[in-house]
């Protein structure tokens, strides 16, 4: 997801908005947007022009989508790690290694 990641981290240059990819940020924005913000998202998401992309980014900023995303990711990781720690059936080191790989590939 390259909506708010740096190109050095994501390997892509902000194409999710232009390509109209269905990502967590746009779904969260639609869920939280008022009618006028939804209309702006509908009219601009998936369009390649800089002004269209910028309009979507402004909505994301107004709705605090970046903070919401990082809060969601942090809480998800916390819950997963909690489940790993409780597990007696499965090898904890293996799941911890998998989580570390997922985290390093997404950051």
UniProtKB/TrEMBL annotation:
UniProt keyword annotation of Magnesium present: yes
Superkingdom classification of source: Eukaryota
Transmembrane region(s): none
Pathway: Pheromone biosynthesis
Keyword Iron-sulfur listed: no
Cofactor(s) the protein needs: Mg(2+)
A single Gene Ontology CC term: cytoplasm
Pfam hit, one: polyprenyl_synt
InterPro entries on file: FPS1-like (IPR039702), Polyprenyl_synt (IPR000092)
Keywords attached to this entry: Magnesium, Metal-binding, Transferase
GO biological process: farnesyl diphosphate biosynthetic process
Recorded GO MF terms: (2E,6E)-farnesyl diphosphate synthase activity; dimethylallyltranstransferase activity; metal ion binding
PANTHER family in the record: FARNESYL PYROPHOSPHATE SYNTHASE, FARNESYL-PYROPHOSPHATE SYNTHETASE
Protein's UniProt name: Uncharacterized protein
Organism whose genome encodes this protein: Allacma fusca
